[in-house]
Design a protein that fits this description.
The protein has one domain. Helices cover 12% and strands 44% of the residues. It has 3 helices and 12 strands; from the N terminus they run E-H-E-H-E-E-E-E-E-E-E-E-E-H-E.
Length: 200
Amino acid sequence: MLGCSSGRGRPSGGGAGAPQMGPGAGQMSQAATATQPCDRFSTVGMPPEQVADIESAMRDFVTIVSYDCKQLTLLKDCRLEGAYGFLDGAPPREVTRVSQRQGGETFTLAMVRAGEKRTTWERVGRADMRGICNGATHVIRGASYGAFEMTKDASSASHSRVKTATAGDVEECAAIEPNARRRQPVCLGLLELFLLPVVP
């Protein structure tokens, strides 16, 4: 853990790169997790009910998790005062596409961004948290939103693809002007979490 004192500050700006094809994404997850930094967590491919729990918590308060750089667990009974707000600035217009071959199958992730939400917390100590916080390691400092679609090749002969995970609508979201995407439901899928370590 980082040796910092607790306190508040303003969020740092700037966009993040494309999320890795993340934990829960089937056969892609192990290869992707090896390169995923511990201050970020890709929600692409997570079970929908787990994503929904995180989204619900983030609507109500600044959210706390337990994370060991491999597995992330939402601490529903632990919280931090505050809220999340969208950062200024338009997201990239283009659709990002990443392919990876794994176990004889090719997975492809298509993604378009709508923006980022951040809290103003920059340092969090255990005394700042409220509730049952055993195991707390990180605060969700922010998140990126947009739409994604993950597919895998169903047959090399037919060139057909099967959807394995999706959030929002990539094509519809990409057709919307970047500055307007954050107001459109097709663009508000959770893509990636930005994590801040809890200090002693």
